[in-house]
Amino acid sequence: MLPKRRRGPNPLCPQVGAAVTDELLQKPCAPDSPDSPSGENWSAPENTLMAQQLEIYAREIQQYYWDQRRLEKELRSQVEELRQSRQRIVAVEEALRKEIAELLHGRVQTRLVVAWHKLGQCLDLLDTDMLKAKSVLRQTRDEIDLIRERDVRQAAHLLHPSVIQIGVRPAIQSLVSTYADFFKITVTVDPQFARMDDPLDNHVPEETRLIIYRVLEEAITNVYRHAKATEVRIGLSMSGEKCVTMVVEDNGIGFDASRSKPGLGLTSIADRVGAAGGVWKIDSALDHGACLFVGLPFGAPEPNRYLHRIAARHQVP
Ligand SMILES: Nc1ncnc2c1ncn2[C@@H]1O[C@H](COP(=O)(O)OP(=O)(O)OP(=O)(O)O)[C@@H](O)[C@H]1O
Ligand SMILES: [Mg+2]
Asked: How far apart are CA 111 and CA 142, in angstroms?
């Protein structure tokens, strides 16, 4: 059914109605229209003009309908992507909780039970062999200190790396020191980023620091687990006033990204960087190492065209 005559643009679709010219609007209504004054008849050219205008009108409505359908589809797929991303973030958090639970339940508990037994031994020795009791007590004290220093700190660190409150650089240094025995790691920071990341007056938002840290954690774990690399280079630099880029490059065995199945590591990088409005990519080829590029805007969680351009330009050396 054709729509009723309308003056001016359709409020739901402004382009609809624009084709109906003023000239046409001055014309009387068609004889069979309920608005038509009786006895008025249109001439043949007027009918043709009206038919053409109505055809344009119908086509625009059809176009409007298809645009709405397309937008609806896009919106639905974005909602679905968001839902899946939330699921993956929950999965990553669950994996982290499991790791902490295993650490506390396994290692910490075993060490505490051993210390508890040794203290019992001490109690028995107090009446018979004072010197031995003192020695066992000293050992137990050291063991408890080790539990505090290593296991409890590790669990706290897994939950939140408090060192990022000082800055990205100390956090990265503390992270890479864990891997110093496995490959050579070089960290390069451009002077502009170093100024922003000043421990006394840090201008890098804390959420951006945490994303950089978590992404690097996944990247370096991947190098350790999969790459068989001897060298890793990490580079941090400012891109413009409010964007930071990070490159993590290794000289390992590489992989075929088109064939490998992303696990939680790359997926959580995608989710974290995506949620912050940043961009990322990993380039690799068999026997040619891997290179991860990440670009993050400070604060704005919107897709950043500037960073997309930088990412497109970035080449694996
Ligand atoms: N630096 C790298 N060198 C070689 N292969 C890599 C590297 N980074 C990633 N990969 C490959 O990409 C795959 C996906 O990595 P991702 O971190 O997503 O999952 P994963 O490490 O296999 O498992 P998870 O991170 O869930 O424990 C890896 O299995 C590995 O084949
Ligand atoms: Mg991984």
From this structure: 11
